[in-house]
Write a structure and sequence with these properties.
binds flavin mononucleotide; five-stranded parallel beta sheet; Rossmann fold; 19% strand; alpha/beta; 6 helices; two-stranded antiparallel ribbon
Amino acid sequence: MRNVLLINASPRPAVSQAHQLAHELLGSLQRRHPALALTERDLAGQPLAPLGADYANALTTPTPFDAPELKLSEALIVELERSDLVLIATPMHNFTLPAALKLWIDYVLRIHRTFSYGADGKVGLLPDRPVYVLVGSGGFHRGERARQPDFLTPYLRHALATMGLFDVHFIYLEGLVGEAAAVTARAAARAQLALEPIFQGLVVT
Ligand SMILES: Cc1cc2nc3c(=O)[nH]c(=O)nc-3n(C[C@H](O)[C@H](O)[C@H](O)COP(=O)(O)O)c2cc1C
């Protein structure tokens, strides 16, 4: 384990339970791998440029990978390629992923670069690696208390798989309303993560 890519999609990472949990995970990894290099991509604090005509044209016509229109896409894909582990901390927004995270997908899920297209459809070109997605939500979308659908999980799982990333784990922090609920949700998520060999040493409180 050498390189970790942390993607934050919360507009308020300082208080985001998912983002704070991601940093707990990093802390436990750093204790086991002191030389660990972290690349943090704050999609909310430093928003990616909206997609323009240049990018859309470059994607739909033959364009060299080093063309200026693909510069940002290339940079984001290289971050992904270099990572041995990807952590995505994201809220659920309106039953799905925040726009900032969808925009990241639009830059990294790129034909001829992270997937190819043939008779069998889209085939991922990235070597697989573990991806942990920490999802915070105000309400519940699983189990008996679920009162809303979850379009985030199936969409993100499919988008990542299209690039070749299948080793994807979703950890949910649900019902994040008030301090007590946040403590409970985070403790449950932590206990679940502590069972994963990759996060051995995570302190469960
Ligand atoms: C624009 C917006 C849409 C939201 N939509 C949902 C939703 O569909 N379901 C839900 O359970 N919570 C929803 N929430 C609440 C957030 O998921 C919740 O506050 C979560 O804790 C935010 O995570 P964060 O602190 O990591 O940003 C929404 C919040 C915002 C700001």
